[in-house]
Description:
Protein name: HEBP2 protein
Number of domains: 2
Organism: Turnix velox
Number of helices: 4
Strand order of the largest sheet: 2-3-9-11-10-6-7-4-8
CATH architecture of the largest domain: Alpha-Beta Barrel
Shape: globular
Pfam families: SOUL
Mean pLDDT: 84
InterPro entries: Reg_factor_effector_dom_sf, SOUL_heme-bd
Low-confidence stretches: 1-12
Order of helices and strands: HHEEEEHEEEEEHEE
CATH superfamily of the largest domain: Regulatory factor, effector binding domain
CATH class of the largest domain: Alpha Beta
GO molecular function: heme binding
Helix content: 25-40%
Strand content: 25-35%
Amino acid sequence: LAEESPDSAYHSNGSSLEEEAERMEDEEQERLLSYWQSVGRGHQVDVPRDMAEPIQQLTRNNSPQERQTVPFTLIQRKEKLGDLLYEKRQYGKAKWACIKMKEKQYEQSICLGFMKLMRYICEQNSSGLYLGITIPIVTIVHTNESQSEMTQAVTVAYYLPDMLQDEPPHPFDSDIIIEEWPSTIVYSRSFRGITNEASIIREINLLAAILESPELCLQDTFIIAGYTNPAAANRHNEIWFLQRP
């Protein structure tokens, strides 16, 4: 038998290492997809196979130091006996990628809306680049005047990173619209756990009871700010009241 040259041995080892890395990557992608699919079923949402790559890309780039926080100016912190009741903040004028959803349940709307935004963030845009995750992902919700019921229509929105604010990449998905939101003062209160119609109405009523002048804010439009992805169980959220312009 002819002796194998060191070069050819290197090539065969190199390709087998590449194949092994590829196999491990495929297994990880499959594991993440099946995890999201099982979470999706809990929210009555079907997570399609074409979400495997965006899910893996977002997971890989989702370390805390990779995330950019939506910038704001803190105006006031209201505390009682050492507990933070709420913060008053000013958010500047900025561009957001927005998608309107109207599923039967709130959880379905945010999961499906978030998946569409994930595709946009993960290269399905005119730049062909991964745009980077920003937090929070926000959802605009509407209630009746008595704040006892939510309407089905919600808007899920992603803040475009600072470096893309001037020229946001165009989404391939025509359902995603780039909007410029005006500078706004918000009253923000933190809460943890799942977000559904019942928990949101509860948080709206809690913050309305704490604020000295809730009538200065919009009475039928609120924002849920999510700092952890919709697949997480113990999510970190905020309810935002919007001061009237």
